[in-house]
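hiii so my PI (J.) wants the whole complex modelled not just the main chain, which honestly fair. so below is everything: two entries, each one labled with what it is. i double checked the lines twice but i was tired so who knows lol
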Amino acid sequence: MSALDAATASPAGKLTITPELVAEHGLKPEEYQRILELIGREPSLTELGIFSAMWNEHCSYKSSKKWLRTLPTSGPRVIQGPGENAGVVDIGEGLAIVFKMESHNHPSFIEPYQGAATGVGGILRDVFTMGARPIAALNALRFGAPAHERTRHLVAGVVAGIGGYGNAFGVPAVGGEVNFDARYNGNILVNAMAIGLARTDSIFYSKAEGVGMPIVYLGAKTGRDGIHGASMASQEFSGDQEEKRPTVQVGDPFTEKCLLEACLELMAADAIIAIQDMGAAGLTCSAVEMGAKGDLGVTLDLDAVPCREAGMTAYEMMLSESQERMLMVLKPDKEAQARAIFEKWGLDFAVVGETTDTCRFVVRHRGVVEADLPIRELGDEAPEYDRPWVEHRPQPPLTPDAVPAPRDAGEALVALMGSPDLCSRRWVWEQYDHLILGNTVQRPGGDAAVIRIDGTNRAIAATADVTPRYCEADPVEGGRQAVAEAWRNLTAVGAEPLAVTDNLNFGNPERPEIMGQLVGCIRGIGEACRALAFPIVSGNVSLYNETDGVAIPPTPTIGGVGLIDDLAHHMVLSLDREGLDLLVIGAERGHLGRSLYQRNIVGEDRGAPPPVDLSAERAAGDLVLGLIRNRLVEAVHDCSDGGLAVAIAEMALAGGVGADVRLDGGDIPHHALLFGEDQGRYVVACDPAHTAEVMSRAGNAGVAVRLTGRSGGSRLTLPGAAPISLDSLREVHEGWLPRYMDGD
Amino acid sequence: MKTAIIVFPGINRERDMATAIRTVSGRDPVMVWHTETEIPPVDLVILPGGYSYGDYLRPGAIAARSPVMRDVARKAADGVTVMGVCNGFQILTEAGLLPGVLMRNRSLRFVCRDVHLRVENSQTRFTRHYDAGQVIRIPVAHHDGNYFADAETLRRLEDTGGVLFRYCAPDGTVNDASNVNGSTANIAGVRNVAGNVAGMMPHPENLIDPLLGGTDGRALFESVLEAAA
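here's the output for the full assembly
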């Protein structure tokens, strides 16, 4: 029996807080000491639970806060930056987009279907809590090596869970990433992002106002699921994952859909003072945050909390992470109206407390005060660490000829296109309803998803990107690259990049080399966001992603959102006309260090990652956006994993028209031109009548440009290699994932 | 011409459907909540897609027994045009207003993709703006679209022109490879013997705008709205 089991089994009032009990709550001895100093006495078990919920890494950001402050979070369009349920960005015409990304890594590893499903549920709630109707969802998934015994089971479960929740809720899942790497064998990543649409004059926040206002509990009932979920997310795994299954919550998208409709209906009735979803650490975190933000106290009466099971203790109710629940501060005269709306949708509605002027967080249950704590200290006075870190020293860059050429460039391309890294993700996204709501202009598979704003000729573009192998080789450069790639993907579909949400996934921050990765990546992200005028408006940090001391590669996922002001100018990557000129925009240096070619074809993983020149990135992007808006190009694709050859192959497959590729890179060897992963590049296709104009605009902008081929036929021809038929390339590209999932 | 869209809790394509009705007819549909016992006088009743009651028990099973369905059945008996799409189709079969059942997809997975359909009968109030044998492209998005009917029911369907659409290859060939969910005889949509009630799994409401990839769903609305006028 654990110390916690023993404690909860003992009659109330006869409990001593032992060091083991403190440790089981994920609190360090010095943190417990701080609690004793703050409250001047020994806490009750419920109070200890509340502190553990508020002070864990997941809720307090205690290791990352110092560094997160360095990120740019404001801009002319930013209505709300980090610190609320989600970021809010003005898109003009009285509308705003509300978005955020959040991880559900540990639960998804333990129970992939429910872990991923509730990750989607949580992020959707973050968005509609603010008054926005969700219009798109994305997800970035990282699995272990395909050959690892758990990988297939995890892929199947996570994808089914994301689909099962999002499809029923009714939000199109339009984009994201899926990748495989042995370094995630013991710790997969499930990062879910949601985007909602709201009116700028009806955004809802979590700051409580007014004394004596009713605090209302909404949604589903509270059960014993998910107790200590946030604490679990703040610890490393050690081989006991199976025992942690009860800490995973169970989702019910039907209730969430009803909750969405009920909340939006109530919001339209102007009844809400403050609203907060119950996510990590449930009732505790939501009540404390609303009170602390408003400089108010909160008193909760747990006897009024709708419970799924009889006999739940205060400790269990305060730490439950049951899903589909909300807490709100209501205008007192609107109670009857609010109750009627929630009853119509078959949801629980209960007044469970009120705001006070004491700045205390008081929890009563069965006539006993179970907790009486200073509310501000729970949040603001959470420990904050300046953890030791070591700067990562990247390896020197490799010259292009330091990476051997393939026997045949065509064979290398086919191998890359059929690899787990680059093969089609159709098997995944066909399990997600990506068309619901009837505004999906660009479906999954392009550079960024494009979602029309209902009833208008404008659209939102969205993407999620990061290249962990770059981040590991050089955290600063990798951080820059993740932002630059997201920015480039938005630009490639003709969108003006607006803002970012980030999901920083790292190992144990108590290890200086891991902390160094976090510090480096944040530095790179900040530099790129500043240079590209691409502020960060929301995000999430997920640390302790390791199992038995093996950390994941640093994975700071960047979710980028952009705006297309006129859908006549949105751009696709498909090559669907013959006789178009293909041009590479951006400087070609043949950088093969840390490329997929180097890793998958040569079997090495060394050197520095490709450097990101942020001013060149911006110049190339601005040029491309101008080409799109002036209708000078027919197709645009960003050049990233796999380089130029893969970019052109993807364009050809998407449109069903082949291409003849020509190279002329001076001293750079052909294989480095074809597979190098130099940043800041795009491939554009244009009518030959426009080629001179495109070239001259590039020249004026100081951006390198080179004619690299022409579209036509049904084959892809690389210089010096046998032509590849698109049919066979498609078979290879589409084949890997379904075959793998079928167990072949 | 008046249209009612029935809204059960958990339904999620009611807005897509309302947009399609508005786009094609220029008129707003009436949204009718599931607890209503009487639908206002309309010419067309639509049961849209989604997850009514969370698909608990079986897709459509609970919705088929909700208060509003008694009036849907009355209207169907009176000859009013009734159309169910996706979950709406499942509800109509569960309510006994259409023959057959919809089982879990053969793959056991949810599937969202464009499929090709061959129009089997263009002499109906749902398909008159299509040509018989015409191949159209429309998306599906479902987990339980695997149509099944026993041999007797199937023969009656075929004999009465009850099969509206079949899943097919782009050239119109009806084969197993194009059967996206394992449906009996590749059936994607059916109508009742009286001819006024129809259901289909694919989503015509999601393909009525060239910007979104095609307009093949439009003719269905043109047919049914004209018929109901």
